[in-house]
Amino acid sequence: MTETATFAAGCFWGVEKAFQRFYKDQDIKTSVGYTGGDDSSPDYKKVCTGATHHAEAIQIHYTPNDKINYPNLVEFFYRMHDPTTANRQGPDVGTQYRSGIFYHSPEQEQIAKRVTAEVQEKHYKGQHIVTEIVKGGIWYDAEEYHQKYLDKNPDGYECPSHFLRW
């Protein structure tokens, strides 16, 4: 059975590419878009102003197995970005670049909170993880040119804070 995971970790181009690279041998489907806001018709231009309150995010559709499952995805999410900076990743600043986990079930919420506590204790002592963990709301796919952007534009912008930390 296919499950969905939704994360925000800065510019969605690099977030999508990081998950694609790491899980390249797994059957995942990704899309980038907007969630967590209050505008019923967000688009890139509006989201970039911060006025819609949406985050640039990625949705991952996957079939859980021993290599790809929700706890592993949450841990990878923390490995590939800086969860200690509020409303920014590297040079990208604004609420649309916030760190967020948008859960789709009570089980995902519990797992997200547990993994966050484990990552905080093991990797971020002395710092505070500011990732929001909130119920997933309406998902809006980003415009087509944003989908698989770095596959189409291999020399395109990739946020310098998207790298594996451990």
Shape, please? globular
Total E-strand runs: 8
Point out poorly predicted stretches.
Answer: none
Helix proportion of residues, in percent?
Answer: 25-40%
Helix tally equals: 5
User: If you average the pLDDT, what whole number results?
Assistant: 96
* Most strands sheet: 6 strands, mixed
Cα(first) to Cα(last) distance is: 30 Å
Q: What class do helices, strands and sheet pairing give?
A: alpha+beta
Sheet with the most strands: spatial strand order? 7-6-1-3-2-8
Radius of gyration over C-alpha positions, nearest whole angstrom: 15 Å
Strand content: 15-25%
- How do the helices and strands follow one another from N- to C-terminus? EHEHEHEEEHEEH
Task: Please explain how this structure is put together.
The protein is of the alpha+beta class and 166 residues long. It has helices at residues 12-22, 44-49, 70-79, 106-123, 149-152, and strands at residues 3-9, 28-35, 55-62, 88-89, 92-93, 99-103, 132-135, 140-141. The protein contains five helices and eight strands. The chain has a six-stranded mixed sheet with strand order 7-6-1-3-2-8, covered by helices on one side. Helix 3 (70-79) crosses helix 4 (106-123). The radius of gyration is 15 Å and the shape is globular. The N and C termini lie far apart (30 Å).
